Amino acid sequence: MPLIPLRPLLETVDKYHFAQGAFNVNAVAQAKAAIEVHETFRSAAILQGADLANGFMGGRTDFQNATLEDKKVGAKNIADAVKKYAENSPIPVVLHLDHGKNFDSCKAAIEGGYTSVMIDGSSLPFDENVELTREVVKYAHERGVSVEGELGVLAGVEDHVFSTTSTYTNPLKAIEFFKKTGVDALAISYGTMHGASKGKNVKLRKEIAIAIKECMMHEGIFGVLVSHGSSTVPKYIVDEINALGGNIQNAYGISIDELKAAIPCGIGKINVDTDIRLAVTRNMKEFFANHPEKRESQSIGEVYRLLEAKKEQFDPRAFLTPIMDTVMYGIIPDEDVAALMAVVEKGVKEAIGTLIVEFGSYGKAPLVEMASLDEMAERYRKGL
To answer: Which of 200, 156, 198, 310 is closest to 247 using CA atoms?
Structure first.
């Protein structure tokens, strides 16, 4: 099927009261695996490329310094990969930009083939955030592309998103934000955190989501609330990484029970990245432990050496730089690379499959309207 905008999926989430996981991918193999596991569970899929993931997929291995040109190349590479595997898929697939840094980043993603974008103006004063978000909404909606904004600041680190403290979202300001910007979804700050070190026993302030959603219903506003920084950081995977020579310390996620309790409070989209990173890294470490002869492979031996040198890292982008043609274009030059990508795909499926079930999106794919970008643009134009 062609990629769809986010809006029709959000409408299904809102109507049937479940949550859709949104999963970050940073390589062609990860996109392939993410779509396949959603197919297994008959769930629609939201695949996310973060702003700097576009830079990485554009060939910028030091992606923290990615330029706009890098992001343009990478956006097209991610979109081409997702379209390839979605084309013959029986499920609806959305490609969503995560944490668009500015208008140009969102524009680059849309031009590259993204069907939904997030503009993150949460670090700006309220009026400036509204102005920036409104500008992105106008540009995106004219093209049928859905938009997510953010209000409130999450603590933690993810790519270029960094804050030492949280600022909880003010429900009254959230209503004003929806009215002034016309966003389809809003990421709120209610206790989640970016990264793997979220602190033990995090309790989400679900009353914030409840207050926003109640006010939206009274005001007749459509929109879905989004939970960022929601990785569960499975302890068993962290323990397995450390048993294989890694050094991941103080890694705690948001509990599944807390996230599930937030769904009936209005949370309809739940972003997960770290869980996938951990599972893929664990699988790569395990692969080289079980196949020591591959440590000297001409094609993937350097991946092993990076895994050994960067024991505190768990982001696969730190290890996959020696095989960037495989990362960016899905090129499989030999059996060793094929074997490594197979375990990468298994890690993605392990992390995502569990959450599809827990968040309740399994079996819901047939309920989602298959609206095209052109059809959605017409709906936005008519205010529908």
So the answer is: 310
What gap in Å lies between CA 196 and CA 233, rounded to an integer? Answer: 6
User: What pTM was estimated for this model as a whole?
Assistant: 0.94
Determine contact, residues 296/26, Cβ cutoff 8 Å.
Answer: no
106-132 in b/e burial notation, b at 16+ Cβ within 10 A? bbbbbebbbbbbbbbbbeeeeeebbeb
Cα–Cα distance between 103 and 212 in angstroms, integer?
Answer: 26
Does 98 participate in catalysis according to the annotation?
Answer: yes
pLDDT digits over 238-289, tens only?
999 999 999 999 899 999 999 999 999 999 999 999 999 999 999 999 999 9
> How would you classify the pairing of strands 20-24 and 161-163?
unpaired
Q: How many CB atoms are closer than 10 A to CB 139?
A: 17
Angle at 56 between CA 278 and CA 58, to 5 degrees: 145
Measured N-to-C along each axis, helices 335-359 and 274-290 cross at an angle, to the nearest 10 degrees, of 140
- Dihedral sign for Cα atoms in the order 80, 274, 102, 210: positive
Query: SS3 breakdown of the chain: % helix, strand, coil, rounded to 5?
Result: 55, 15, 35
Instruction: Indicate the range of 38-52, 165-179, 230-244, 304-318 predicted with least confidence.
Output: 165-179
Span between the terminal Cα atoms of the chain, in Å? 24
Beta strands at 20-24 and 267-272: parallel, antiparallel or unpaired: parallel
Position 297, amino acid:
S
Residue 161, helix vs strand vs coil: strand
Catalytic residue among 62, 70, 80, 98: 98
